[in-house]
């Protein structure tokens, strides 16, 4: 319940009162309702029982499938996709469901939810890139359906349809999201948690509704199993901020129950990991959570990094950015009525996700994937004011471009840049299971995945002394050179006792689908070699003279 002003022992400052007034009376003064006027997309009123709107469910069900499911089997991209496909393959081969393995060693960087889901997909459909990518595709499709199902009443049918339509058209979601990364699974979990918690607190300033509250905690628990404590960090602060701005009491006891339920879902696995691999605590919690946030050791980007990511990822909506700002800040009666609590909460959730990862020293474009669904839904009330002609002229051409990008350009680009593009001509040098394979200076999990081997070792440039010593331990070693200058470096640095024999050069040649006049520029722009593998060589130890 709202706290009466007379109960406050320390009245809020004028600045605090101004912020609250700005948020609730200027930015979001409206009320949620099922009817969203201002457009004529469907005949009759904006209500699910309208005969002309019954086909919307089929549209929401089948249109995402057109973008997400075809051509899932294109070549895996180095380094992330190949790593996340190889870990569950090795776990499945070992019959291991607790400790993730990579290159035959425990892999402690991430929790297991993505690996478990891919292992189930491998068991059902066989080990392949398509089976692995089916997991993020299903997660994104489920998220789209959940967004429409839960927001069609508080936002209105047209606004919720516009929001999920924008989400589907956003390349940051439909193209980047279906790649094999943990962030698609995390986005689905966070989306489920946000939508469920809103069902719990919506129009309920007192105690949250327990069923939806626990459902949200369940999804947050899945997020913790997907990527760690970030699940709680992305879900609960927007709830606290929303209640604060609305001058509603913050249910601290309910929040504690929420955290206990969410954390308890991950306790069994985390406890088993700590028991099996004691170093897991330091490696995962300290290095890959706290230190990557405070003092990153990779993926360092500037503070403005996510501005262009959002601008490109939310196309075509960003083309109408000024129109959205006028709607959001305008004083017209129609616009004010459409800016209600649901839009407020969604903007807080999406904005908090972007803000949090902006503070992090370690940044990747896919990190803010959980922000796309709430941000797109929050733009739904504005999009619903556009006419059907405006949507048709913008949405259909963009949808055609996305289909071409997802099902032609991306697969062909991946095939061109793949380390496995030469096919059997390359694999013939690598198929002997008795010949050790070493990667230098980075891993090449495409080869491990294709050969079904978990014994590929790798050495970094700073470990060259150990690499050289390792080469002396056997008569013959196949070396995967994963940098364009690695082969030349080996020629100069290897001692005379080790002979270097180049086996395969993966220098790129422009494919036929690139215009001839752009061949040279395209190859140079792409880096002149396959992604993640440049040369294959054999190092032989000279026999010792008697």
Write the layout of secondary structure elements.
Layout: H1 14-27, H2 56-68, H3 80-94, E1 101-102, E2 105-106, H4 113-125, H5 129-151, H6 157-169, H7 171-174, H8 182-201, H9 210-227, H10 230-245, H11 252-276, H12 280-294, H13 306-313, H14 321-329, H15 333-338, H16 341-359, H17 369-378, H18 380-383, H19 388-417, H20 424-427, E3 437-440, H21 445-451, E4 457-458, H22 464-471, E5 476-481, H23 486-493, E6 498-505, H24 519-526, E7 535-541
Parallel strand pairs: 3-4, 3-5
Antiparallel strand pairs: 1-2, 5-7, 6-7
Helix pairs in contact: 2-5, 2-6, 3-4, 3-21, 4-5, 5-6, 5-8, 6-17, 8-9, 8-10, 8-17, 9-10, 9-11, 10-16, 16-17
Total helices: the number is 24
- Radius of gyration, in Å, reads 26 Å
Rough outline: globular
Strand proportion: 5-15%
Strand order, biggest sheet?
Answer: 4-3-5-7-6
Distance between the termini: 91 Å
Q: Total strand count, please?
A: 7
**Low-pLDDT ranges:** 1-9, 34-52
* Count of the domains: 2
Biggest sheet features: 5 strands, mixed
The amount of helix comes to 55-70%
SSE-based structural type: mainly alpha
Average pLDDT confidence is: 87
Walkthrough of the structure:
By secondary structure, the chain is mainly alpha-helical. It folds into two domains: 72-384, no CATH class; 424-541, no CATH class. It contains 24 helices and seven strands. It has helices at 14-27, 56-68, 80-94, 113-125, 129-151, 157-169, 171-174, 182-201, 210-227, 230-245, 252-276, 280-294, 306-313, 321-329, 333-338, 341-359, 369-378, 380-383, 388-417, 424-427, 445-451, 464-471, 486-493, 519-526, and strands spanning 101-102, 105-106, 437-440, 457-458, 476-481, 498-505, 535-541. The strands form two sheets. A five-stranded mixed β-sheet has the order 4-3-5-7-6, with helices on one face. A two-stranded antiparallel ribbon has the order 1-2. Helix 2 (56-68) runs antiparallel to helix 5 (129-151), helix 8 (182-201) packs antiparallel against helix 9 and helix 8 runs parallel beside helix 10. It is globular. 38% of the residues are buried. Mean pLDDT is 87; it is low at 1-9 and 34-52.
